[in-house]
Write a structure and sequence with these properties.
6 helices, single chain, alpha/beta, seven-stranded mixed beta sheet, about 200 residues
């Protein structure tokens, strides 16, 4: 089963992405149903979109979820990437298990001339994979802080960036490019700020 790439719109326009289905991801389901309303997953834009005007994306994202998490992919099952120099892993979705990350790394290692930015809250999967080893130079790990308005300024082990979501109380800290990720590139360039703040949507 081959992976389907997404051509993103909105602030992610002109960036290719690999997305999975949060509606079938047990971790996402648990987080979105958290009684703690300061958990950003309880306001998940991805789940809302996929239940409404992006319903047509669910079958493709679900196929990606299965393909990435069930077994290690063969080289000919890895997607062919376009000329884009940056690739987003998970504009929609989250890591499912260790196999999922292994397959992402196969793609990262195949295209060493591209920069991959992987957004995840799954510190457990990252730690289990990398332990005391190094990760590929062309992979940027972005820790997606799950707690609204509680900015993290210390990165978890193995991560290159922290992405914080804020309400009005932290407006002075907002430094996310917001309108165009492809222009801003703070999450795709290790030389730029590593602590990112975005205003909650």
């Amino acid at each position: 089963m081959k992976i389907q790439m997404s051509e993103m719109t909105g602030k992610l326009k002109n960036i290719q992405a690999i997305n999975t289905n949060p509606l079938s991801n047990d971790w996402c389901i648990a987080m979105s149903n958290s009684p703690n309303k300061n958990i950003i997953c309880t306001e998940c834009y991805s789940c809302s979109m996929l239940k409404a005007y992006r319903r047509n994306c669910v079958p493709a994202f679900e196929r990606n979820s299965i393909a990435l998490s069930v077994a290690e992919l063969k080289d000919d099952e890895l997607p062919k990437l376009k000329a884009n120099d940056i690739i987003r892993i998970h504009a929609h979705g989250e890591l499912i298990n260790d196999i999922h990350l292994t397959n992402v790394l196969k793609l990262v290692n195949k295209y060493k001339n591209k920069t991959f930015s992987l957004y995840t809250k799954r510190k457990d999967i990252i730690e289990n994979k990398f332990g005391n080893t190094s990760k590929p130079e062309n992979l940027i790990l972005v820790y997606s802080n799950p707690t609204i308005d509680t900015p993290l300024v210390n990165m978890p082990k193995h991560f290159d960036k922290v992405f914080n979501v804020c309400r009005a109380t932290n407006l002075d800290k907002i430094n996310c490019g917001a309108l165009s990720c492809n222009t801003c590139r703070k999450c795709y360039d290790k030389s730029k700020e590593n602590i990112i703040y975005e205003m909650i949507k």
